[in-house]
Task: inverse folding
């Protein structure tokens, strides 16, 4: 349902596409579900993805087992696998990062290669680029972190200004 669906499909099977340009470049990817304009539009060989929302997983080519719910979620993902993004712009810039979970508008928004991050909260860990193994919850928690690893943070604005600090634990508002 929609325009330009399965334009290049060769061997892929059991895919579902709803919306203009969804799964447009898919050739052999299977078991994908895409709804919303441009969702999974660049997918070629990846399988087991779910994209729901305008531009969700748009640039994904070979990344498999990803879930994107919300406009522009996992938009730039290319090869990253096993990522979950829930919320507009969640994991927007992720390209090769794996095993990330971002729940909340803008969660892990600028993450590119960081892996194994678990984030809950609007703009939580939003500026992260390469930092990995971080767990954070709360509005704006670890907002400015770009490269820090192994941090565990909970609370409104917790570790807000951390940029590259590693292996910290902070629980409470504004710590």
Result:
């Amino acid at each position: 349902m929609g325009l330009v669906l399965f334009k290049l499909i060769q061997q892929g099977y059991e895919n579902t596409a709803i919306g203009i340009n969804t799964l447009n470049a898919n050739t052999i990817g299977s078991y994908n579900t895409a709804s919303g304009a441009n969702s999974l539009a660049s997918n070629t060989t990846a399988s087991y993805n779910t994209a729901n929302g305008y531009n969700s997983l748009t640039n994904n080519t070979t990344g498999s087992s990803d879930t994107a719910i919300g406009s522009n979620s996992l938009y730039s993902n290319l090869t990253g696998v096993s990522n979950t993004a829930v919320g507009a712009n969640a994991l927007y810039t992720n390209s090769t990062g794996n095993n990330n979970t971002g729940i909340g508008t803008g969660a892990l928004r600028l993450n590119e290669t960081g892996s194994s991050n678990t984030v809950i909260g609007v703009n939580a860990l939003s500026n992260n680029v390469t930092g990995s193994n971080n767990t954070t919850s709360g509005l704006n928690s670890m907002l400015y972190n770009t490269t820090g690893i192994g941090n565990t943070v909970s609370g409104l604005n917790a570790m807000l200004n951390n940029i590259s600090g590693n292996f910290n634990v902070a629980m409470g508002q504004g710590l």
Notes: The chain has two domains: 14-69, 83-174.
